[in-house]
Amino acid sequence: MKKILLIHTGGTISMKEDKSTGTVQQDRQNPLLESTGSINKLANITVVELFHLPSPHITENEMLIMAKTIKEKIMQDSFEGVVITHGTDTLEETAYFLDLTISSNAPIVVTGAMRSSNELGADGLYNLISAIKVSACEDARGKGVLVVLNDEIHTARNVTKTHTSNVATFQSPQYGPIGIVTKRGVSFYQTPLNRQTFDIDSITKNVMLLKAYAGMDSILLEAIKKLGIDGLVIEALGQGNLPPAMVGGLNNLIKNDVPVVLVSRCFNGFVEDIYSYDGGGKQLKELGVIFSNGLNGQKARLKLLIALENNKNGNSLQELFKQ
Ligand code: ASP
Fold it and tell me: Measuring CA to CA, which residue among 152, 140, 188 is closest to residue 43?
């Protein structure tokens, strides 16, 4: 049996519903700790209860602790795979953070649940079992951090939460899942082409994320410039365009050496320097805005943060975001 590290961090998968109020909350004891019987048949599992937090309480600091713990345990105790249970709200961010900061080929699988442990149709234990099966699968090696829920295997880079309550919430727009978990096994039918990892030791930078809207101007850009931020990601319109009233504020940030990364608020497609009108992609590129290749806003933010922690700047940032 494979030697698998199981890290619990909290989320609905570790919560219970209060039947009298219908609200969902953490219990003092994580209910997943009671499911050892059904999971110990699948692998030689070591459980670490690292956090017991709802995922909106997870910050980059907890993500870094997870990355350090995983790297240390894989190196020192030669675990062959890792499973992390996590709240679904920020699951894609933690998964992508780990993908960017851990270079091991051992399968690292993040899972969660949409229904808490005592709800009708609870999906937590089922997803945990699927995630353990994937983490113990030879074919999962070298594919980067994976997200497994609802019988599907997604890459951390492409997956996103698409529905507030449906158990099929995790999707990879444009690309689809790379594999499937069935009753008899685990099958992959796509392999990610490239992967970037960065060595970081701490989180010291402040990177923000803004979403563009029709009629947006430079007020927010001027305000955040005063905060002395280290980087900014903007979810732009369509193919990578912004209202013209934002150009002045953007120019000020870039002149002050604040890197600005552009993604689209559309969840399919790339941003490119196609339109030459005022505020269009061509003008933004000429200003020095960095165009990101298909990442959503929250993931581009983490990539910029991690790249800055890794001392990347200027042209090297441009290159990083091309991949
Ligand atoms: N709000 C919960 C969380 O992210 C949602 C979940 O886990 O499904 O912690």
Answer: 140
The reply to whether the predicted model has a pTM over 0.90 is yes
CATH architecture of 3-188: 3-Layer(aba) Sandwich (3.40)
Q: What CATH number should be reported for the domain whose range is 207-322?
A: 3.40.50.40
Please indicate whether the domains covering 3-188 and 207-322 agree at the CATH topology level: yes
- The region of weakest confidence among 12-21, 82-91, 153-162, 276-285 is 12-21
Q: Pinpoint the alpha helices (H) of 276-313.
A: 281-287, 297-309
> Is residue 88 annotated as part of the catalytic site, yes or no?
no
**Ligand 1, residues 14, 88, 94: which to mutate, most atoms within 8 A of Cβ?**
88
Residue-wise pLDDT for 213-246, tens only, equals: 999 999 999 999 999 999 999 999 999 999 999 9
**pLDDT digit string, tens, across residues 13-53:** 999 898 889 999 888 788 888 877 889 999 999 999 999 99
260-264, strands of its sheet edge to edge:
207-211, 231-236, 260-264, 290-291
Ligand 1 shell residues, CB under 6 Å: 11-12, 54-55, 87-89, 112-114
